[in-house]
Amino acid sequence: MSFLFKHKTRNPAELVKQIRLDLKGIEGIDLGSPSPARMKKTLSFGTLKGFKDGDVALHKTAKHMGQLRKMLVGDESIDGRVGETGSDKDGNGRAKGGAATSTSSSAADGSTPYPKDCAAAVTEMCVQGLIKDLCLALTQLDLEVCRDITACINAVLGYTAAGSGAKPGVDYFVENCQIFDVLSAGFQDDATALHCGNILRECNRSPDLCKIMVLEPGQVLWNLFEYAECAEFSVQSDVFDTLKELLLKNKGVTSELLADKYDRIIGEYTKLLTSEAYMTKKLGLGLLGKLLLEHLKGSMLRYINDPKNLMLMMNLLKDKAPSIQYEAFHVFKVFVANPDKAQGIVEILSRNHKKLISYLENFHNDKDNEQFKSEKVIVLQQINLIGLNH
């Protein structure tokens, strides 16, 4: 009689279809075509009605998502489910060098083989439109299910077909750009921010998807700047992590952004640096410093030759928070070290050189950092030379 209690083993097409049916049974998830009015409602992540504990559809979704995750990435620990792409994980959320179960095809780059049903599962998720449904459902599901969703979507994004080198997951996102609106709106809710940010950062591995998020239409980038002043620290940190990936990972895309929309991007940075919120200023300065170093020979030369930006950094050097002062120094030093300073920059440094030297001589002398100490000496020497020669 044991056969009566056996669970049905579904193939990838059946499993994907079943998950879509499960999601339709959860109250508050609208999987219809996104009309403007419906999309506006969808983007308001906190407004949807939740389900009751013990809801059958929820439990079925959790079970079936676990099965789908296993099809895509094999057996792994819970740490691998989140889909973070750290040094011990590959682009699909699988542990590097770890054996996936029941494999029959290898990844195109020769790394860990894909599980035997991975290719079929990726195809079905794209063909049946499950990826969009899962993104819409994130706000209504619990943490463990959301982790499985994130791991599955990231696995699809990272999948490369053997032989052809095709990336069906990337192609799906290119053809369904409205998903980016849903994902960026996820930062409005601390329950979904981690998962949405995780997926967006995985998308950013593809230059084609990076262009959509940053350049055309580029709305993801501008949404992130809007959410960067979020009062919830965990959400704000994830926003800045995602901004850093979008602006630093694909240098060519960022160069094009700075060339075409310099005033707007610097305007957004200025809002961050003049914010009343401590963490917003600190994280904004850190991100600006990295952007300067990456693009100093390109569009960011314009930034360090603008007297208004120098004055802003000089004011931040005197901020009441020591960590803000320290971060501001690492941007200020770039203005001073520039060998081809604009006349306006030279005049400001010359006019204020005595005050700057007096202030910097006692600036963070308690720091036990040899690189900082040597950089401060160089900055003082440069300012002193400017004062002597002008």
UniProtKB/TrEMBL annotation:
Note the superkingdom of the native organism: Eukaryota
Question: What is any Pfam family matched here?
Answer: Mo25
Q: Which InterPro entries match?
A: ARM-like (IPR011989), ARM-type_fold (IPR016024), Mo25 (IPR013878)
Per UniProt, the ranges with Low complexity bias are: 97-112
Using the UniProt annotation, give all residue ranges assigned to the region (Disordered): 79-112
Q: Which GO terms describe its molecular function?
A: protein serine/threonine kinase activator activity
GO BP of this protein? intracellular signal transduction
Per the record, where are the segments of Basic and acidic residues compositional bias?
79-93
Q: Which Gene3D superfamilies match?
A: Leucine-rich Repeat Variant
Family as reported in the entry's similarity comment: Belongs to the Mo25 family.
Descriptive protein name:
Mo25-like protein
